[in-house]
Amino acid sequence: MKRDRRRAGPDRPRGYEAQELPELEGLSPHRANQRPVLVELCVGTSLHVAPMEFLEAAVTLVQHAMDGGERHADGGKICLRPANMAVVSTCNRVEFYLAVEADAVEEMIHSIHAEIFLQAADEVCMDAESMVYVHHGADAVRHLCRVASGLDSLAIGEHQIAGQVSRAFSRTVDNEGWNGALIAMAEAARRACGRARTETGIGRGRVSLSSLAVELAEREMGTLEGKHVLVVGAGKVGRLACAKINRLGGAVLTVANRTFHRAGALANEFGGIAAPFQALPQLLAESDVVLSTTGSLEPILSTSLVDWAVAGRPADRPLVIVDLAVPRDVEPGVGDIGGIKLFGLDELREMSDASMEGRREEVAQAERIVDEEVIQYERARRIARVRPVLAALWKRAEGLRQSELDRIFGDFDGVDAETRRRIEHLSGALVRKILHQPSLSLRSASADGHLDEYSNVVRRLFALDDDTGDPSEPDQA
Question: What is the CATH number of domain 209-343?
Fold first, then answer.
């Protein structure tokens, strides 16, 4: 099918080339407008609405569910892995993106609440009601676009979240197979993110939580020149922290990781020293700054460990620890130890808010881009619903054409191959020309929200309800 290359208009932003959505699953061959369509959902929580304790508990439950492990609660087993779900779990949020039929919406929301968020609330003795949000339809797509564009991040404009969103949706396709509605949501988010990066300065300076953490440490120490900086964890967050430290220059960098060769690779890349995890007590005693970035589900820097490491430390040599992990790598009690300055994501959020002052217009422009992409998504989604009707219309016309050809060729014996070819070509061209404008009108009516009335007329005029099968509309339409 040819792409629509019309000029940009009031509801078609420049630079946007319309891409029709994949077929939506769960719809009947040509009665899609009369059957329940898939509803987009987002059910989640983040540090914008919930404290760290609740988010930690939710992340832990999600990790067990994603790993397929058993986590008994009231004798049950958590296992949330349907084909119509993508899970975005980061240091800032846990969100479930779904595309389900309308009559299953409430059931799915209840399942996620019960199996993840209510259990997380019970573990930390909190009420989940005010800490979980639900977005439906276009609002769910808009939220996903904002998340992917870095507009909902603790560090506004960060780049890493786009990759995290992409991987979350890719996992769904890899594990469960193609889900057209989810892919369409992911594509809308990808376009919004790409435009926000290229058309605004929202991501200028390679903003990330890791870079904010290094800046916070530098602010607390006055300078990192000659300071011993320990990065715990060799994943993406740890790598970004090492890169920032390397760009600043002057610090003595050490990388510790459970897998020593990964620590070695990261340390070599950025001119640091690799150390085994077992050396943490001594490393803490020698360090001035610690950035902890692991994916452990349990704290790795306990109060007793840190207390031992800083025993006898001079009062004029504080130890700055920045915890970038969710669940937290550092036990909260560490902050009560004398000579320890403990910071977490809340402090990084305050830094990010302060840095917003010079970028408000960029953020506003990125928000407008998100709105434009949501409009285009909705329009493409409506157009996608007309495909089964068009397919039935073209099938009926093709069936009539073929029937008449069979009758004519049956009545006239000895029709040569060239004449036969010309007659078949002529009949096909007539069908295409006759149906071309009705097909365009149906698409336009669908995009404008009038699919039901137009498709009902078409079905009655051409008796489409008598047809069966799943024909395809020719490319020429």
Answer: 3.40.50.720
